[in-house]
């Protein structure tokens, strides 16, 4: 991959002050792809995502592109509404920009970012559609599924849960699973002890006081903060020394304020710390003793739980979507709680608080298992295989449409916490090898043809040939004239 092909990655959001899990995942993905491709990150506006991308040397392009939220919550009029969006100025500008750039392929992040795949497909540009969430299951779900299928060459799913909405034939033919990971350089391993002490001092939490954490980029009803508060009320009865930290910006301000009022009404104000947006997440995780993820939606994955395990913390979570895959992979399936069961949620937290040594051991063992399945090494192994396949499929040969004779590998299994989950299946190796050989032969022929063309165009060669021709022509005239003079001289002497 000496000559990098240009690809475009589309982010559906770029928040000005904070950064969501989806943005972090796309940024990490872009950085990991940079050694293989010339990456251009497209975002709707300048924000924390674009600033970080530029600092990492990633090219950034700002294009305001309408989102299609109906892809996440499908309804009958979805196709008609998309056609209207395709008539708008923003869509036409997107098509024009892509037509001028002609990238080898594009990657669109999240199901609601539907216009970039449609614009690319209209131009014959291959599309990899990255699905990070679970599409709402209703009678119109097939509309979203068909739109994604018909406007993509490959589907990249963050988990089995995210891929579950696609029929089996689509999953086998074009879905690949690529679960997220973390960047070791940002984990600050050596400073964990220091970060824990400093952050707890800032929060005025004594060493003997256990700290239960809640983390969400943007807090709304679906993220279950109210359930966390109600759980704390029950836990406080058995462990009055426990403290609680809430990390995240209010997404739904009225909901957030209702939760804060609930804390006051229960007399737990002194036990709670609402810290808002956290600039240094490693410090926040290090300060905690355990993490609770009471999400009420079917999470596509559950990045908060993964981060908690990466920092060696035990995690208690509602059994919703991708959270089950993560906790099972960590060997902590017994800490899954039926969604909305606040009583059981509190019981699991009480159990861990009652045995802090056991809780720390659970977190430590879980980190080792998670490292094997979702760690940076496992992620890069999967991504290397994907990058090779994309390079061969989209950068060496003319683009292929979805459903051709060389489909991408099927999604790997996950959720069992085994090493097999870390292995991305590879199919069509013989076909890819033959195709690469043909590409090399073609490149060799092209190089020889170019060499012959350059040789034919050398001006010095033409000039030398012309001079030689003139010399030959001139020499012949002189020789003929000399012979004529000598014949005339001999005739005069004879006379």
Structural notes for this entry:
This protein has about 500 residues and is an alpha/beta fold. The protein is about 50% helix and about 15% strand. The protein has 19 helices and 13 strands. The strands form two sheets. Strands 3-2-1-4-5-6-7 form a seven-stranded parallel beta sheet. A six-stranded parallel beta sheet has the order 10-9-8-11-12-13, with helices on both faces. Strand 8 (about 210-220), helix 10 (about 225-240) and strand 9 (about 245-250) form a beta-alpha-beta unit. Helix 4 crosses helix 5 (about 115-120) and helix 10 (about 225-240) crosses helix 15 (about 340-355). It is elongated, with a radius of gyration of 32 Å.
Quick summary:
The chain has 495 residues and is an alpha/beta fold.
> Describe the biggest sheet?
7 strands, parallel
What's the pLDDT, averaged over the residues? 86
Strand order of the largest sheet: 3-2-1-4-5-6-7
Alpha plus pi helix count: 19
Alpha-carbon Rg, integer: 32 Å
> Strand tally, please?
13
Termini separation comes to 88 Å
Which residues sit in consecutive blocks of at least 5 with pLDDT less than 50? 398-430
* Class derived from helix and strand content: alpha/beta
Strand content: 5-15%
Tell me the overall shape. elongated
Task: Estimate the helix proportion, in percent.
Answer: 40-55%
């Amino acid at each position: 991959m000496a000559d990098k092909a240009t690809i475009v990655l589309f982010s559906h959001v770029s928040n000005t002050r904070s950064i969501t899990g989806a943005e972090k995942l796309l940024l990490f993905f872009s950085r990991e792809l940079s050694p293989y491709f010339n990456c251009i990150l497209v975002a709707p506006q300048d924000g924390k995502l674009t600033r970080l991308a530029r600092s990492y040397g990633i090219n950034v392009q700002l294009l305001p592109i309408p989102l299609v939220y109906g892809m996440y919550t499908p309804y009958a009029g979805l196709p008609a509404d998309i056609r209207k969006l395709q008539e708008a100025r923003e869509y036409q500008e997107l098509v024009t920009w892509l037509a001028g750039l002609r990238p080898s392929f594009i990657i669109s992040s999240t199901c609601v970012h539907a216009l970039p795949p449609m614009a690319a497909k209209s131009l014959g540009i291959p599309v990899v559609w990255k699905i990070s969430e679970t599409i709402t299951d209703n009678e119109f779900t097939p509309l979203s599924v068909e739109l994604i299928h018909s406007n993509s060459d490959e589907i990249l799913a963050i988990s089995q849960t995210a891929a579950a909405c696609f029929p089996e034939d689509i999953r086998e033919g074009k879905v690949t699973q690529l679960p997220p990971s973390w960047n070791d350089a940002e984990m600050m391993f050596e400073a964990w002890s220091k970060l824990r002490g400093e952050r707890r001092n800032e929060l005025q939490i004594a060493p003997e006081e256990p700290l239960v954490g809640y983390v969400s980029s943007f807090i709304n009803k679906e993220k279950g903060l109210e359930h966390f508060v109600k759980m704390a009320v029950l836990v406080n009865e058995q462990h009055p020394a426990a403290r609680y930290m809430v990390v995240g910006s209010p997404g739904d301000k009225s909901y957030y304020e209702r939760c804060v009022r609930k804390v006051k009404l229960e007399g737990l104000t002194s036990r709670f710390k609402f810290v808002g947006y956290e600039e240094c997440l490693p410090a926040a995780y290090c300060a905690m003793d355990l993490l609770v993820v009471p999400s009420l939606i079917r999470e596509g994955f559950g990045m908060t739980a993964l981060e908690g395990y990466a920092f060696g913390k035990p995690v208690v979570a509602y059994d919703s979507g991708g959270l089950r895959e993560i906790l099972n992979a960590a060997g902590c399936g017994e800490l899954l709680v039926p969604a909305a069961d606040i009583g059981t949620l509190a019981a699991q937290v009480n159990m861990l608080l009652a045995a802090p040594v056991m809780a720390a051991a659970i977190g430590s063992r879980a980190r080792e298992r998670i490292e094997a399945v979702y760690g940076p090494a496992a992620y890069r192994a999967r991504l290397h295989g994907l990058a090779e396949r994309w390079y061969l499929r989209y950068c060496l040969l003319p683009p292929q449409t979805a459903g051709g004779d060389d489909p991408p590998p099927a999604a790997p299994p996950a959720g069992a916490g085994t090493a097999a989950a870390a292995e991305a299946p590879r199919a069509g190796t013989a076909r890819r090898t033959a195709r690469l050989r043909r590409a090399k032969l073609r490149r060799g022929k092209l190089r020889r043809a170019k060499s012959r063309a350059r040789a034919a165009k050398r001006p010095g060669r033409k000039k030398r040939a012309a001079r030689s021709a003139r010399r030959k022509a001139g020499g012949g005239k002189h020789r003929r004239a000399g012979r004529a003079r000598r014949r005339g001289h001999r005739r005069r002497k004879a006379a």
